[in-house]
Amino acid sequence: MTEEYQELEATLLKLPQELRERLFRRLRQEFSIHPLEAQWNTTAEDILEAISRGSDLTHRGVRGMLAEASFASNVIEKLKGWKDVTPPGNHTFDFLLEDGVGSVRIQVKNQRLEGGKPLVRRQKYFKPVYIVETQKTRSGQDSGEEKTRPYRFGELDLLAVCLYPSTGRWDTFLYTVANWLLPHERNNAWIATLQPIPMPPEPNDVWTDGLETGIAWLRSGVSKTVMPD
Questions:
Q1: Is the pLDDT assigned to residue 133 strictly greater than 70?
Q2: Per the confidence metrics, is the pTM higher than 0.90?
Q3: Which has fewest Cβ within 10 Å: 101, 159, 184, 209?
């Protein structure tokens, strides 16, 4: 079977692209790409077309879900000694991981895009930095007329930032301890909406490209800040 497949694959690769595309379209009539096609009684192509017709807000939402899906498949599934115990429902974190020591709450966000390019800011950061937006997707106010979009310190442990806007890859992340993030200018109990990321987006003493390093920082209890020098 393996030899037959290899021979068939070699034959297919020699075909003109137009013929291979026709064959692909024929096979797509028989094979689905994802169970959602059957669940929604549609095709992956139509789902993608619908997304492409959506607004920028729709695209941002889908990119956010892609970042979470990539984190699950490219980071969590490769961890050893950890269990994903994320409960169903809406929470202030996207993932809850647990090992023999305890649990860690992780929020996944995308590096901010603006005009199709990574957003760059200087202002109070003294030098150019990339930006990640950390506020919650939904807005509102509680009974005390306080805004509910900002995260509050203590609601999450680590921030994972997907660097797709800079790298073109969904499997590249930077991590920092949530308590190291900058406070909101209106309330020190809130996490500021816009947080600086190193430019270029590389590890330093407050951002790491390894989740387990970020967890070690968290558990060390060391106090730092992501404000650039």
A1: yes
A2: no
A3: 101
